[in-house]
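# step 3/5: fold
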Amino acid sequence: MATNKNEHLKKVLDTHDINKVENLDKFIAKKNAVKEALNDKFSDTKASNAIDSGSYAKNTAINTKFDIDCCLPFRKKEKEDDKGYEKLEDMFTDVYKFLKNEYTEDDDDITKDDVRKQKVSIGMKFKIDGEDFDMDVVPGRERPDYNDYNNNNTDLSLHIHPPNRSKKEVDDNKKRIKTNIKKHIELLGGAERTHERKITRLLKVWKTERKNQNGGKLIKSFMMELYTKEAFDEADEIPSGLWKQVKMVMNHIIDNITENDLVDPVNSGNIVSDSMSDTAKFDTKRDMKKTIKEVDEDSDMIKEYFPINDDYDDDDKASSSYSTASVLSTSKFG
């Protein structure tokens, strides 16, 4: 019997629901502890308390590969008596040193070796009740002026850690990124963007499975979010059904990823697609074309590209329990 693609994708969403993670409450508590420590340490130089960011804040996270992020906005130092940072690199380095050398002294779930510099964030890897939990801390500085960060102006400048710059960023001698964490969260926020969030989560399942199978690099998660929003916004008519919506977004990515720049909607000067290599773009385009072709030709192939997370498949567990009971019963009376 042919697989019902839409019903299968509904189950994929259900079994990849982040809220099914057993230790999620402990991970969130850890995130809040890090935020509180940052707020206390940098109380004189922060522009606001640390804010949630990343896929969990956007409600686009899946439970097979996720972290929970936060961003700490700092003031921009312009005069000698200003509290804040003149140089972005100093801001980035101070947050890194605090997390590595001070925070780890008071937290038994992480060691100094598990704190690392990343492109625009400091990565932390905790071990909580035997499970790994990743968290990224993004230091950002208000812009354009001192004491500007508020509800009406939430733009930030991020430091780019030199070893993690893309080739294009090196060629352009780019050392900072203008961004707006709060506006990024709002892009797919609200009840009217429910479908876009679902499709983004399904694309993340697809990407994770492709990387598990083939390795290499594919499209970045932030780009998938932007392309999904773009595809829905530009469509003359939104098709019904999860598979047709996934296919609509994939076709939009196929048509654009190697041909057109993807611009950050909160910063026209930030070409998000420049952060991806040509190889990663080509591989993403090729794999998406292959996915659409094979699933359209054989509905069962949707299980290969969008697998159910067996760890959270209640139907499968119930079926297994029933099957085991049947075998035991037969053996007993056999």
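# step 4/5: annotate
The chain is about 50% helix and 15% strand.
# step 5/5: archive (pending)
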